[in-house]
Each structure stands twice: as structure tokens, then as C-alpha cells.
Design brief:
mainly beta, Methylamine Dehydrogenase, Chain H, 4-stranded antiparallel β-sheet, 1 helix, 49% strand
């Protein structure tokens, strides 16, 4: 039987320390339920274009968690050979691209979202990678290379069909995120600039494949998101508790919004009236009114909220059952892929230490 995602906007917030995803009704500003992530210390979340599925990834777990958003449950886990950074979906939603790091460097795994199986993996860099984005028309992937020399940050421009790297574009120091403008004309790369007082954003002309501007933002910027109209971009500055508002026509900062202590991820609702910012230190999701550039409330979620994504509208999850009553295409229906042996023990120790550290931080104020 098909499940229905409620019509009210829903935010899905990854709680890294609890291995859960909080489902937040942003209209009533409350958490309505939680979903097991099926993996250790989940960090990033991507929702399929039809709003039916969410894929979770983490640099701590060699698994991709798959959530059924119609039923608010863990559907399956996809075993990976290596840990992963980001997941992006093709425009049709038929494919998911997973940014992974292997002993030989950065690679991208291509997953068939109908079967949740890895179709192929292709290398993109001898260096490790730390995130990626996809062009709105699906014609290009953009992968951030993590070079050992912090002054040589680069973006690899990739043909997803052939896996060929078409060009490398030099950006700033310690690049941490990349997003493409809804029109596809620009890509913004967040540079943490670890040795500087402030970070920056490299502005890439996607047609010319060159950097056309550099925008100074706040201290230790983390993530960037474009307004649905493409006219502005928000950058979270985890080092000074602010969000920089960038005008994409002039590539200038036109506003600074004080938020929680260490803002991490930021997303807009589908019409752009509000933006939502996660803070792993205060365990809250801040809600920004984009017309006034002011925080209009916040929602307490789980421990160490990280990645955030929104379901755009009411959707029907096409939960087709096979003869055994399992979801069609499930690899391990409703069960996470376990991580065993030494790695499992190490992950549990790391998760415990992290949780205790954050608890101590909260006690210290």
C-alpha cells in the first residue's frame, strides 16, 4: 500500500551522535518523529527529486542509508567499499552519485535508485575528495579535491556519463562545500581559509569553467545554499555564529544574520520564504525569514544535528510489494548493513567520545 508524505513542509535533520533523522514540521515548528539512520554517525542527507527517498552518507560508515519518506522508516542499507562524503541525485532521480575516498584517491559510485545497487564506480582524482554537486540538467558533476597542500584546492568537472574529468578549476584554501545555482550558470565553492581570519567563496562560471569572483565571508564558513530564485546565496559561518547573504548578481555580501553558535548546514524551502540552519552544538534548527533576514524561531532536534534537507511537497511513495511482502528493489529491507570487527568497535568508541565531549560542552555553557 502506498504511503503519503504529509502536505505540510517537512525538514529532515541528521543527528550525528544519535544515528537518527529528526522529521520536523516546519509550519508548527516541532519534531514529529525520528527515523533510524541504519549507519554509524550519519552526516549528509539528500532527498530524491520525487520526494520519496532519502540517502544518508557519512565519513564514518561504509554504508549508504536509504529512508522511505512515505513511511518514515529505514528501507535498506547499501554496502560501500569505502566511506562516503556526499550524495546527489540525477534530475530524473533514477541515479544517485556517491562521492567516496578509496586507497587510490577520490571516486564516484553510481547507484541505481530502483534497485539500490551500485552500477559502477569511476576514479576522479588521485587526491581524496570531500563533497560534490550536480548541474541542474545532470550534464556535469563537480567534485572537491582535498589536496595535502592547503593552497591548491581544486574542483574537478566531470562528465557523469563517461566518468571523464574534463577540467580542474583552482579555488581557495580548504574547500568544504560546493553548490550550483538553480539556473546552472554559477557554482559557489566555500573555502574555510583555515589560516585566515575570514573564509571566502569562489564563484565559478560553469560555462567558461573559470573562477570569476571571490567573496569574503565570515570565519570558518561551512556550507552554502542558493535561494530557489537564484538571486541570493546563504553561507553558514561556523566560526562566528552568522550567515552571510550574498547577492549573486554582484557577488557581494548584502547582509549578515546572527544565528546559533556553530551553524553548519543551510537549506531553503521550495518557495524561498524561509531558510533552515542546523547547529550541532546547541542541537537546534534555526528558521530564518528570508524577507527580513531575521531568525523567526528554532526547533530542538537530536544530538549534533548536521545535514538538513526538505521535502518539497506532498508525495506518494510508490511502495510496490513483491510476493514476499518486501519493498521491491530492497537489498536488506528495513535493516542496516552492519559494520563488524575492529571498525565497528572503533566507530562505537568514537561516537561515544564525541557524544560525551558535546555533553560536556553543553554543561560548560
Amino acid at each position: 500500500m502506498a504511503g503519503l508524505v504529509p502536505a505540510a513542509p517537512l525538514a529532515y535533520v541528521v543527528n550525528r551522535d544519535e544515528n537518527l533523522v529528526s522529521v520536523v514540521d516546519v509550519t508548527s515548528q516541532r519534531t514529529v518523529t525520528t527515523i533510524p539512520a541504519g549507519m554509524a554517525m550519519p552526516q549528509e542527507i539528500a532527498i530524491s527529486p520525487d520526494g520519496c527517498l532519502a540517502y544518508l552518507s557519512s565519513v564514518w560508515s561504509a554504508t549508504i542509508g536509504v529512508l522511505d519518506l512515505g513511511k518514515n522508516k529505514l528501507l535498506t542499507g547499501i554496502p560501500m567499499n569505502h566511506v562516503s562524503n556526499d550524495v546527489v541525485f540525477s534530475p530524473s532521480g533514477g541515479l544517485a552519485y556517491v562521492d567516496t575516498n578509496t586507497p587510490g584517491g577520490g571516486a564516484i559510485a553510481v547507484i541505481d535508485t530502483a534497485t539500490h545497487q551500485i552500477m559502477r564506480t569511476f576514479p576522479v582524482s588521485p587526491q581524496n575528495t570531500r563533497g560534490m554537486a550536480i548541474h541542474p540538467d545532470g550534464s556535469r558533476l563537480y567534485s572537491l579535491e582535498q589536496h595535502s597542500d592547503p593552497d591548491t584546492g581544486k574542483v574537478a568537472v566531470i562528465d557523469p556519463g563517461s566518468g571523464e574529468v574534463l577540467k580542474h578549476i583552482s579555488v581557495g584554501t580548504d574547500a568544504s562545500d560546493i553548490k550550483v545555482q538553480p539556473s546552472g550558470s554559477l557554482a559557489y565553492v566555500v573555502n574555510r581559509e583555515s589560516r585566515q581570519a575570514r573564509g571566502s567563496v569562489s564563484v565559478i562560471d560553469t560555462r567558461a569553467k573559470t573562477v570569476v569572483a571571490t567573496v569574503a565571508v565570515g570565519k570558518h564558513p561551512s556550507r552554502v545554499a542558493f535561494h530557489p530564485a537564484g538571486t541570493q546565496a546563504y553561507v553558514t559561518n561556523s566560526g562566528d555564529g552568522t550567515v552571510s547573504v550574498i547577492d549573486t548578481a554582484s557577488h557581494a555580501v548584502v547582509g549578515v544574520i546572527p544565528v546559533e553558535q556553530t551553524p553548519q548546514h543551510v537549506v531553503f524551502d521550495p518557495v524561498g520564504t524561509h531558510a533552515y540552519v542546523s547547529d550541532p552544538r546547541t542541537n537546534r534548527l534555526s528558521i530564518i525569514d528570508t524577507s527580513t533576514h531575521e531568525v523567526r524561531g528554532s526547533v530542538t532536534v537530536g544530538s549534533a544535528p548536521w545535514g538538513v534537507a526538505l521535502a518539497s511537497s506532498a508525495r506518494k511513495a510508490a511502495a510496490k510489494l513483491d510476493a514476499n511482502g518486501l519493498e521491491a528493489g530492497s537489498v536488506v529491507a528495513g535493516k542496516p548493513i552492519p559494520i563488524s570487527g575492529v571498525w565497528a568497535g572503533l566507530l562505537l568508541v568514537v561516537a561515544g567520545i564525541t557524544a560525551l565531549h558535546r555533553h560536556g560542552q553543553r554543561l560548560m555553557g
